[in-house]
Amino acid sequence: MTKNELEPISPVEAKEMYLDARKHEVSKSTLDGYHYRLKHFIRWCEQKGIDNMNEMSGRKLQKFKTWRRDDGDLKPITLEGQLDALRVFIRWCESIDAVQEGLHEKFEALMSDLKKTDEQSEAILDGEEAEALIEYQRKFEYASRPHVILEILWHTEIRLGALHSLDVSDCDPEAEPLELTHQPDSGTPLKNGDEGERMIALNAEVCRVIEDWIEQNRHSVEDDYGREPLLTSRNGRMNPSSIRDTIYRVTQPCYYSECPKGRDRDTCDYADYGNYSKCPVNVSPHAIRRGSITHFLTEDVPEKVVSDRMNVRQDVLDKHYDKRDEEVKVEQRRDYINGI
């Protein structure tokens, strides 16, 4: 389609149409994330006098990328997230004849690859990715071991060691709590010792997944101390390294969607056993914890509640786990003040 065949539409109108088109597909927090990430592009268009998306080109997108990098003083991972959100938006704009076909592919070439170390230091499994992954598991791998691992980690924000420590008796499907107990003498200490012991509320859906896992797929075995672990292999309690490998495998985007780097899972070395952690676009167990915490904070769950639930001081939460953009925090504070 040539530029003359495009249908005129302003950046603001295109963004609103996009958000409206997605509002029944994703959660409110995910939709808010789209809004926050795209509003900088709208601001740039207004500053540059761009009132028609038909005018957008690879050169203009390069100028926006440079402007946003310099204007925001952003960390690489934050800039990458905002540019990726814009790429998806541009691809959607192609579908409504607002920009030239293939423009999003030009934009991909402008997005610098991040080093794995940079990405992991600030990486999170964001709400949209988590929803897509868990939705896939609920549909195609229901109550499997990888499924129950992701359900628990995402909805409880617990550490890998705490997940490893769980026994069948720690789960009560009727009362819907999950109990964490410090048991160093039988191989499952908690990071904060006795102070890490707590009850964590679960919703009915997560409880049902755990119950179905226990009834249908869990190996009926005991560990070396005669306990009945929740996560099992054929030989006993699943070890932490195997849990970690499972997380690296299932958070590879090609596992539940498509590879953002354009690789084919059938031929990709990162999809082979032993190479999962080398994938440049999956995440570590801690990134799930970080992403879950950020998600619930974005959903306006009070910081004190999140802090108690995850067993970490509030100042540590603010410094190391809360990865909301400053714009998101400002908007949430404004919404709170306006609601008083």
TrEMBL record:
Key word DNA-binding present: yes
Tyr recombinase domain span: 120-334
Keywords of the record: DNA integration, DNA recombination, DNA-binding
SUPFAM superfamilies: DNA breaking-rejoining enzymes (SSF56349)
Residue intervals of the Core-binding (CB) domain: 9-94
GO biological process: DNA integration; DNA recombination
GO-annotated molecular function: DNA binding
Family matches, as PROSITE patterns: CB, TYR_RECOMBINASE
Alphabetized CDD domains for the sequence: DNA_BRE_C
Coiled coil start-end: none
Any single Pfam family the record assigns to this protein: Phage_integrase
Designated name of the protein: Tyrosine-type recombinase/integrase
